Amino acid sequence: MSLVALSVVTPMFNEREAVDHFVARLRPVLDGLAVPYEVVAVDDGSSDATVARLLQLRADWPQLRVVALRRNVGHQTALRAGLRAARGEHVVSIDADLQDPPEVIGEMLAKARAEQVDVVYGVRSDRSTDTVFKRRTAGVYYWMMKRLVGPWVSDQAGDFRLMSRAVVDVLNDLPEPRPVYRLVVPSLGFSSAEVGYVREDRVAGKTKYPLSKMIKLTFDSITGFSAAPLKIATWVGLLSFVLCLVLIITALGAWSVGTTVPGWTSLYIAVLLLGGIQLICVGMLGEYIGRIYAATQGRPAFLVSFDTDQQEPAGFAVADPLPDDPADRLQREHETIS
Fold first, then answer.
1. Distance CA 337, CA 163 (A)
2. Whole-prediction pTM value?
3. Largest CA distance in the chain
4. Tally of domains in the chain
5. Where in the sequence is the domain holding 290, given as residue range(s)?
């Protein structure tokens, strides 16, 4: 595998409205670095014209590489596919919605080289563009992860980061079927630094992380990185056992003194309480057993439909440009000047 100086990996899912804006801002930044680079755009089974538009843009930008997955597998797994395909000595992961500014990539690369660190995290110094609900739920998530995973997890760092080849090789060798990279990368213990930036509004389209996916990410983070839920289930079981002993002793005492107690309310509450606790504990065990079952099946986490670095796809219709397309406008201005 012939290496380049820098790979930029960006997972995309139904980003037709954003892809032109993303390319229009990313390309000048990378061209200005004056280093050999590639952009690995991983299409996560989009149902819109994202792939067609990427192939159209690639005709004028040979460094753009399109890796199309056969179906939608989720953001983290698509990122995993991009890391496996990347050939850079340094690899940057960034989303296509432009909430993380591409202009910071040059600062990341310079800091990695100057300080000889393996990871440079993009840290959000200002999240005022996010909704209050988004900021609060993100705060709860990182608060929980710090206590379950470890204090090295940054509460303002997501998936915008630069990694050295050594880090990427370790990540690619991990057997985890569904890694959560924002937790896995800091846990490896590689030398790191941070670059602050202001988080911007999504440039176009709808968010790809609604509440349902945020909840799924939380479950994947907890069950994939910590056995704490199993320990919690054990302690809850012990507490419920102690509570049952207290209720038994109380009932025997009432019976010995001949006190008539109706008891149906306490019995009803006890049955519901213990039944609920048991179901929660069984559910927690089921999450881990499900992961073990998936691992024993050995099915691939993703399948690549095509990679333009290896073959040119056929059968894709040319995407219609959006109104006031930034990439097309820059191209027309360049042709006019020349």
1. 38
2. 0.70
3. 103
4. 2
5. 228-297
